[in-house]
């Protein structure tokens, strides 16, 4: 992205210190709104070449940027989901949100999967509120939410963007509905809007522990070689958050952005499936290419193509492993992955890991269920909800 280089000394003084205030005064009328300051820093980051000499400066800019984005989302600006039309109670085993640009077929998909009539039409912004529906799949009860179309700038409040994204943040899984006739810039734009409010798609929380201490400064320890981050950058970021005393333990090769995610908190690590709808408009080769992309499913609501695969892909891949008893395994019970082929009458205990559950040891109730269309008995093991430790 960086098209030209800025020396670290120059960059350091232009935005890090005096230039920062200058940028504020230069702006016309509004006198340096949070949004303008965000844009200034984003510009500065894009202009700064990434190398060892600029790492500390970039870390400082990125930490400032994160704090500003948080400021913009938190106060009176209408963030959060408590807006008429968006107050939908969470029910069922999982909540899935339909996110996408206008008119990609989100409402059509909700109606097709749940039977709830959500108005669909050829004009943009047909849907203006959150419309819930329920899917029963293999006895799992899933709440599916249809949402208004997003536009670029949604995270800064354009359209109903903030309400939509706040609702998306409450989902366990996001189905990003995409137009298969357009290029993948749409995917990047939507991902960026979601990232702006702390949603991380198909990523794991960084393996980093930060423990504030009463004194002693920064104690930094890494158990793996770090290629993008070091103690000095860590100290710069922590200083922005006024954390001068802390024990930091880094167990993976993190970037400064990932480290800031840990410090800034309030991140949502969400599974995302990319749903290319309207594939009836494409040639077979084009469909084939889209279907091979990672985490992607191709569907046509109009022709009722591929719903079952969409649901399997969305839900069953969440099941990390299963204990299988029966004729398909040599040893009963045996731990199996999702590719294991079951025999009729096998008993399966599925261990489903959601974000909040990963951190906690297993203590669970078991509920028996049956996979639709077969005699296979499934026992689902539910784990206690627990807050994530950082
Ligand atoms: N060809 C084709 N058209 C479809 C398909 N699914 C939906 N459409 C059409 O696409 C248009 C938009 O559908 P909607 O369901 O309203 O789209 P949306 O994403 O909910 O739109 P907004 O609520 O405005 O954001 C409608 O005219 C649908 O009939 C499909 O699989 N194939
Ligand atoms: K529409
Ligand atoms: Mg709609």
UniProtKB/TrEMBL annotation:
Keywords of the record: GTP-binding, Nucleotide-binding
Entry keyword Magnesium: no
Domain OBG-type G stretches: 94-319
A family per Pfam: MMR_HSR1
Transmembrane segments annotated in the record for this chain: none
SUPFAM superfamilies: P-loop containing nucleoside triphosphate hydrolases (SSF52540)
Superkingdom, natural source: Eukaryota
UniProt-annotated stretches for the region Disordered: 1-33
Low complexity bias: start-end ranges: 1-13
InterPro entries listed in its UniProt record: Beta-grasp_dom_sf, DRG, G_OBG, GTP-bd, GTP-binding_2, GTP1-OBG_CS, P-loop_NTPase, Small_GTP-bd
PANTHER family in the cross-refs: DEVELOPMENTALLY-REGULATED GTP-BINDING PROTEIN 2
Protein name as annotated: OBG-type G domain-containing protein
Native species: Durusdinium trenchii
Origin organism lineage: Eukaryota, Sar, Alveolata, Dinophyceae, Suessiales
């Amino acid at each position: 992205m960086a098209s030209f280089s800025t020396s670290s000394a120059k960059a350091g003084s232009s935005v890090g210190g005096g230039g920062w205030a200058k940028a504020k005064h230069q702006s016309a009328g509004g006198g340096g709104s949070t949004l303008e300051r965000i844009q200034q820093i984003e510009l500065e980051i894009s202009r700064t070449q990434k190398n060892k000499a600029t790492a500390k400066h970039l870390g400082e800019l990125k930490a400032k940027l994160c704090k500003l984005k948080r400021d913009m989302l938190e106060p009176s600006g209408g963030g959060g989901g408590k807006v008429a039309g968006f107050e939908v109670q969470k029910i069922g085993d999982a909540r899935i949100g339909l996110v996408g640009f206008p008119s990609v077929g989100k409402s059509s998909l909700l109606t097709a999967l749940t039977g709830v009539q959500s108005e669909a039409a050829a004009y943009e912004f047909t849907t203006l509120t959150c419309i819930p529906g329920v899917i029963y799949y293999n006895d799992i009860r899933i709440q599916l939410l249809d949402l208004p179309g997003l536009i670029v700038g949604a995270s800064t409040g354009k359209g109903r963007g903030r309400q939509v994204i706040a609702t998306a943040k409450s989902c366990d899984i996001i189905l990003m509905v995409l137009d298969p006739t357009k290029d993948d810039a749409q995917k990047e734009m939507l991902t960026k809007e979601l990232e702006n409010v702390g949603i991380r798609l198909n990523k794991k929380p960084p393996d980093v522990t930060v423990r504030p201490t009463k004194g002693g400064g920064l104690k930094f320890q890494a158990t793996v070689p770090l290629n993008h981050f070091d103690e000095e950058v860590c100290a710069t970021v922590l200083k922005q958050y006024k954390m001068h005393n802390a024990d930091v333990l880094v167990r993976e090769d993190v970037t400064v952005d990932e480290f800031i995610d840990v410090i800034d908190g309030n991140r949502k690590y969400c599974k995302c499936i990319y749903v290319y709808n309207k594939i009836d408009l494409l040639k077979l080769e084009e469909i084939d290419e889209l279907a091979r992309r990672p985490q992607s499913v191709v569907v046509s609501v109009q022709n009722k193509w591929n719903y079952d695969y969409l649901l399997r892909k969305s839900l069953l891949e969440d099941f990390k492993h299963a204990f299988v008893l029966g004729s398909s395994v040599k040893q009963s019970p045996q731990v199996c992955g999702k590719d294991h082929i079951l025999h009729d009458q096998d008993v399966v205990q599925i261990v489903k890991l959601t974000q909040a559950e990963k951190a906690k040891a297993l203590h669970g109730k078991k509920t028996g269920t049956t996979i639709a269309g077969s005699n296979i008995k499934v026992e689902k093991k539910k784990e206690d909800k627990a807050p994530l430790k950082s």
